[in-house]
Amino acid sequence: MADDQFYREFILDHYRNPRNFGRLEGPDISHEEYNPLCGDLVGMDFRIEDGMIADVRFHGRGCAISQASASLMTERLKGMRLEDARKISKDDVLNELGIEISPARLKCALLSLKVLKVGAYGLANVDEEEFE
Amino acid sequence: MSTSRSSQAPPALDVEAVRKDFPIFETGVAYLDSANTAQRPRQVVQAMVEYFTTYNANILRAAYGLSETATARFEAAREKVRAFLNAGSTREIVFTRGTTESINLVAYAWGRQHVRTGDLLVCTVMEHHSNLVPWQILAGERGARLEFVDIDDHGRLRQDQFQRLLEQGPRLVAFNQVSNTLGTVNPYREMTAAAKAAGATVLIDGAQGAPHLGFDVREVGCDFYAFSGHKMCGPTGIGVLWGRRELLESMPPFLSGGEMIKAVFLDHTDYADLPHKFEAGTQAIAEAIGLGAAIDYLEGIGLDAIRAHEAEITEYAYEALSEIEGLRIFGPPPGPDRLGVLSFDLEGVHPHDVATILDRHGVCVRSGHNCTMPLLQRLDVPATTRASSYLYTTRDEIDRLVAALHDVKRIFTR
Is B103 on the interface with A (CB under 8 A)? Predict the structure, then answer.
């Protein structure tokens, strides 16, 4: 049925067994964002070597969508050049989740993208509409 | 605590007849989010449409018949509010945009006049942000101290702690009549009497209380009472601040400009008499008239009958939810000090995921922090799922909620 489509097995798997979950010691970049609508929290720690994301960990608490999205994001980011990570778009994130996200839940799905963009490049340098 | 003034059982409420007054139920949704905003009956919608289509004009400032009719109906709505609260005068009834604005009016106009460095303000951990943030800002500005009464394990205010705070002679005591997350009905009569005896000014947030219990300002004896229209079958954008006349008289204006003046000169202004001194700008005329119609509607059914119906639904829902494994309900068990606001946690599933799946079953509930983040921090949960009922809620809607929750569990444990 529809809900099984929405809460697909791999999303629930990432929610129950989040990848790269935890903190890094002495990260080069560390940033947290709240979803003010619901209080969901996602934070990410990065270790950068020669402009490349050598390691990344996320922490947080929230719904299956925000946490699975963050877990998927860390898998994508590991080993990526920081300048390439900057090009990750809202559509990239939604395509990876592969489900129809209602407007009310869009902020959950895009919270980890906001953490990446604001943390790595600063709020002044990113387009906030990307997370809404 | 009961609002029944007689020992006789109230007349039973015919819920199916009530539901016919609410066109929204033709859509088939199970609406369990009335603590967020209630549904509106045709009678309220019609009263507003009648204003828009037959006597639409601004109030208080034109010499033609339409405006006179609009003014008369607007003021008639104020009289309905006065009677609903058993206030001594319509001069004590200030229309606002809602509870939030009512409380801000007091925090700014009364607070900046009366609160001084070192004063104590007493609030509670179960407050909605609207009865907390204004006091935080005021305390910060004035160098006052803000203390919070904690809750016990059943979600009731700790009266022992409240008494100890009263011994320190607070300037203000502000608390809700009913918690919007826990459903707790606070002992507001006793708390008001104790706070007044300690010399405090008392403000009660009635946003969740007025729609279900009503309120008698003269019987309770507080100084300010605030509530919103949209949680009691009225429109959004209209609310009420009731204040003791002598307090309102002595307070400076909150918002200023048109409508709140007697005469304006380049170097000074004479303010209008109460209540218009606090009603700057063009008022929400249709909304005030709609609120008056909502009061007529609720009183036509009878608050005692509504309360009895809700008590039955609450008990039914509490029992049904309690049977779900891994589900934990916050707040007191069913009884005279608990209304039909059931916030709960379903083990292993975030409330947003619960609400998303419930929505796909046509069941509307609130998920999130319910504008009570400090209370959720106290309960040590990031969010809750909240199902709330009103006069039109049926057992069938509760059954649909329970069935949908079983589907949530199936999806998350497969």
Answer: no
Tell me the CATH number at B27: 3.90.1150.10
What one-letter code names the amino acid at A103?
A: P
**ipTM (interface pTM):** 0.86
Q: A39 to chain B, minimum CA–CA distance in Å?
A: 7
Give the residues across from A30 on adjacent strands: A45
Residue in B with minimal Cα distance to A4: B411
Contact B29, B364 (CB under 8 A): yes
Say whether A3 and B369 touch across the interface (CB within 8 A).
Answer: no
B41-86: pLDDT as tens digits: 999 999 999 999 999 999 987 889 999 999 999 999 999 999 999 9
Instruction: Give a yes or no: residue B7 inside a domain.
Output: no
pLDDT tens across the length of chain A (132 residues): 455 677 888 999 999 999 999 999 999 999 999 887 767 899 999 999 999 999 999 999 899 999 999 999 999 999 999 989 989 999 999 999 988 888 888 999 999 999 999 988 876 666 666 666
How many helices (H) and strands (E) would you count in chain B?
A: 16, 15
8 Å CB contact of B356 and A105: yes
Q: Domain check: are B123 and B167 in the same one?
A: yes
Alpha-carbon gap, residue B222 to B219, rounded angstroms: 9
Task: Please tell me whether residues B19 and B67 are part of one structural domain.
Answer: no
